[in-house]
Each structure stands twice: as C-alpha cells, then as structure tokens.
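Support reply, case 0932

Customer input (verbatim):
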Amino acid sequence: PDAGGSFEMLRTALLACVAATASAFAPGSAPLTRVSTRAAIARGPQMQEMSKAIPFLERPAKLDGSMAADAGFDPLGFSDYYDVKWLREAEIKHGRVCMLAALGMMFPEFTRLPQFASVSTNPLKAFYDIGPVAWLQIFAFIGILESFSYDKIYYGDSAPGDLGFDPLRLSSNPNSAAHYAAAEVKNGRL
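Our regenerated output:
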C-alpha cells in the first residue's frame, strides 16, 4: 500500500471522529415547542445556605455562625451527632495543647530547666527518657481537668473554652473578647 494513501485514510478517519464528537454537543434538529417567557416561581423546599469554608457543600444546620470563627466547616457531619459545645470545647483544648507543644519544642533549645538537665532535647527521645511514673502523673492531671470541663460543658452556662482565667483582663471589652476568641480558635487550627 501507498504511504500517502494510508495518511489520507487516517486523516479522513480522524476528521470523522471529530465531526461525530462535535455533533454530540450540537442542538437537535427537532422543532422547538413554544416556551413561556414568564419566570418560574420557586415553590417547595429552599436550598440550604452554602458553607463559607467549603463552598460546594451545604452549611451544617447546627453551625449557625454564633460561635467564634465559625465558617461552617464540618465535612464529616460531626455536628449532626455530637453536641456543638462539646466539639468546640475539644477544638479549643486541642488548639491550646498544640500551641503549648509548639512552644515546648523550641524552649529546650534556648534554656534548660535544672530538673530536666538529663532529659534529651529531642522530643522523640525525651518521650522515653521521662519514664512511666511521669506519664501516669500527666494522664492523672489530664483526667482531673477533663472531669471539671465535663461539668462545665454539660451543666454550665459558660462559653466553650472559657475557664474564667483572664489575669490581663483581655475580655473585659466585648469587642476585644470576640476578637481574641476568634484569634485563639484560628491559631489553634494552624
């Protein structure tokens, strides 16, 4: 066979494929029916507001923006199954622990406390250096703190994360209190 004929046949086949693909998107040749010019009136259920955090998902019903730094981020739907105050309290606690841990990672590089002179500055090695009695003390302290926060969350009227400890009186002004509450949640999310 001729090389020029094969090229011509390939070109014709590709042109036929492109025309078939384009015809799939062309409007039909059937005559159009008469279309009303009146706008349709929406009746029935309305669409839910979209989340600011994830614009292609609906905003969770329980995340109404009343809490600090609430952007409607709940892609797994935890707010449908758990108390939102408990979830926010957990978010604030975890954020505070992470901020202190970040400080704790840097602190030994600049200064050493005398009682921890024998403990490694490498956090992965320090985990094994302190021993099981120290870990028992840490977990007992965490358990005591959690028991107090449990009563506060489920039986108290205070806002999530409010421990009543404000020695610098940063929350004396309601505007600054809202600003610092949102800043703490956002910094904890980092």
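We compared this against your earlier run and they match. Two observations from our side: The chain has a mean pLDDT of 80. Helices lie at 3-24, 84-110, 123-129, 132-155, 174-189. Please reopen the case if you see a mismatch on your end.
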